[in-house]
Structure formats: structure tokens, C-alpha cells
Design goal:
With 349 residues, this protein is an alpha+beta fold. It has helices spanning 7-11, 17-70, and strands spanning 85-86, 101-108, 111-114, 138-144, 149-150, 161-165, 178-182, 187-191, 194-196, 202-206, 234-251, 257-265, 271-275, 277-286, 296-298, 309-319, 333-341.
């Protein structure tokens, strides 16, 4: 006996194949749209993040370099035109205070020339052809630290002891450090033989000749005419800073190593300052007629007299570090230029 199918039962039949395909197509359309919006938003975020990182890295790198360039040749109140008494047995790269500014021009991908020499042999071993990125310049700055240590009492001649006022906080000098003793009329460079920090607010610095320190002092006499340093003098720690570009430590979002800006201070190991710095080019503003205006900007190996350089033009090419754009290699990059005047060259004294 056949069972009759009511009208209500016929209305309850399932979805057909055509309806199902239409539903899937519409669903895929919405999923594709949402995916496109997500990818577009992600690309926009990566682009903005890359630009922000690039600009921030540029600001930090240029400000750090500009500060040290500005202070090149700083010797307290001592004039750069008065000879310094150098008591050291030898003057190596790290303590050559007489050359406050030095540059190495990249003449190819694997060679550099400075205004006085070719190659990097004069630089420390950790700043050589194997470390520095090919085709990038190197900048060397020498000066004393910003704040000196006051002399506590007049130094008798020909004593090798100097009484200094113990500074608050950490002592900025130590045994075997190279230091500059200066008032506004004279200055002397020597190596500390021994430092004794006193608990009464006065410490003692000894600078004997001989001994096993390198380079050591050939004499304990800090003046040739028997004059002494009094309480208007200060003792300054010396510092040599080398800026260069080399492969960085970390990797980006693709696992690639990018170049970075590095700085080596004294005999300490180099430290990475800013990542994503692809290139550094330096030009030197030379004042040939003593009117305190650069006559030209030239590369280091074209400078006639580095002591007449009164400004430095820093050019850094920086990328976004991470791949963040629809460019050939995925990087955003921009070149930034900053010209810095050497404060201690803009004086006549």
C-alpha cells in the first residue's frame, strides 16, 4: 500500500547540489575577501613598522655619532695650539691624542686609505678587513672624557704622585690607564702606574717611569721647566672611538644577517649600536684659509691637513632590517645626511 506524501513533507526536502555549490562559492568569496583584507592590513603594518624602525635607527645613529664628532679633540680648557708633554714610551693608535680625528676611505670592497696611510694595519685587530663591511668608511675620534677629576693639592716638582679629589660614584680611571693632566696653560699625557683610592676624599695617582706596563712612561716629569700643576688642574681619562659598519649580531624576520653600525671604545671589544646600517660614507670639511668656513668637503684620502678639518659630513644608508615592502629585496631603505661642526676646532686659542 503506497503512502501518500503530504505537501508539508515535500516542503521539508534537503538542500540540493546546486544550492550547496552556490553556498560554498559565496562562502569562499567572503573568506577570500577577509583574507585579502588581512594580508593588506599586515602589509600596511609591516610597512609602517619598517618605516618607523628605519627613522628611529637613523635618529639614534646620527645623534650618537654627532655627539662624539662634535667633541673630537676635547682637552678640557687646554688649547689645541699648545704642545702637550707626552711622557709615554710610545704612542700607539689608542692613545694618539695628537690626532683627534682620523678617517679611512673605502677605495674598493676590500681596501681602505686614510690621509696618512693605506690599509687598516694601524687599527686594532678587531677592526680589519675581515670585520668591516666592504666599501664602507671608518671614522676615528680621540678626546678626553667630558668631566675631569680635580687636583686636591699642588703637585711638588719632581714628584711622581698626584693627589686628586675622589669623585662621587665609580672611579673613572684605574691602574695602567692613559690620562691627560691639564690646566689652561699646559698639559701632559702619562700612564698611571698605581691608583690608591682614599677614604678621606683624596686619592693618590702614581706615574713612575719604567715598570712592566705598556707603553709605560719614560719619565715622571710632567713639565720641562719645573712648573707644577696646582688645584686649578684636572685629570682626564682619554678615549679613542672607532665607528665602522660590519655584519650585525641578530637576524631579521627572514633569518638574514644585516649590517650594523659598530663602535669600538679604547681597548674594549666593539659594540653594536644600531642595526640595519648598510653603508657609511664620511666627507671632511677642510678650512684652508682659516676663516672657519670649509673650503671643500673631500674623502679622507683627499684631505690635505686633517688638523684643518672643522666639520664632518656623515652619510648613512639604513634599511628597515626586516623585509617590509614590495621592493625587489623586500627592504625599505633611505640615506640620511648630517653635517657636524667640531667644537674644539672652532677656536683660535
Amino acid at each position: 500500500m503506497m503512502q501518500k506524501i503530504s505537501v508539508e513533507q515535500r516542503k521539508q526536502r534537503g538542500i540540493g547540489l546546486i544550492e550547496l555549490l552556490i553556498s560554498i562559492t559565496i562562502g569562499l568569496f567572503f573568506v577570500a575577501g577577509a583574507l585579502q583584507i588581512f594580508l593588506s592590513s599586515k602589509q600596511s603594518f609591516n610597512l609602517q613598522n619598517g618605516m618607523s624602525r628605519l627613522q628611529e635607527n637613523a635618529r639614534v645613529a646620527l645623534e650618537m655619532m654627532a655627539y662624539d664628532v662634535r667633541m673630537a679633540g676635547f682637552l678640557g680648557c687646554f688649547s689645541r695650539n699648545i704642545p702637550i708633554k707626552n711622557t709615554l714610551n710610545s704612542t700607539d693608535h689608542a692613545v694618539n691624542i695628537g690626532t683627534s680625528l682620523e678617517g679611512y676611505e673605502a677605495t674598493s670592497l676590500n681596501s681602505w686609505a686614510s690621509e696618512v696611510a693605506v690599509g687598516l694595519d694601524a687599527l686594532p685587530d678587531d677592526v680589519d678587513e675581515d670585520n668591516v663591511a666592504g666599501g664602507t668608511d671608518i671614522l676615528v675620534i680621540r678626546r678626553v672624557v667630558d668631566k675631569g677629576i680635580r687636583i686636591a693639592k699642588a703637585m711638588p716638582f719632581p714628584s711622581a704622585d698626584i693627589k686628586i679629589v675622589t669623585p662621587a660614584g665609580d672611579m673613572p680611571i684605574g691602574d695602567e690607564d692613559i690620562v691627560l693632566l691639564s690646566d689652561c696653560q699646559k698639559a701632559a699625557v702619562f700612564q698611571i702606574t698605581n691608583l690608591t683610592v682614599g677614604g678621606s676624599g683624596v686619592s693618590n695617582v702614581v706615574h713612575n717611569a719604567g715598570g712592566s706596563s705598556t707603553p709605560g712612561n719614560y719619565t715622571k716629569l710632567l713639565t720641562d721647566d719645573g712648573s707644577v700643576y696646582d688645584t686649578d688642574a684636572s685629570l682626564f681619562a682619554m678615549t679613542t672611538q672607532i665607528f665602522f659598519v660590519a655584519p650585525g649580531i641578530g637576524v631579521n624576520n627572514q633569518g638574514d644577517i644585516q649590517n650594523a653600525l659598530w663602535r669600538k671604545v679604547g681597548n674594549l671589544p666593539p659594540e653594536e649600536l644600531v642595526s640595519g646600517v648598510e653603508n657609511m660614507q664620511i666627507l671632511y670639511g677642510e678650512d684652508l684659509d682659516q676663516d672657519f668656513v670649509p673650503n671643500h668637503y673631500v674623502a679622507a684620502n683627499q684631505v690635505l691637513d686633517m688638523s684643518q678639518v672643522i666639520s664632518v659630513r656623515i652619510e648613512l644608508t639604513i634599511n628597515s632590517f626586516d623585509r617590509a615592502a614590495n621592493t625587489a629585496d623586500g627592504f625599505i631603505r633611505k640615506t640620511f645626511v648630517k653635517t657636524v661642526t667640531l667644537r674644539n676646532r672652532m677656536v683660535t686659542g
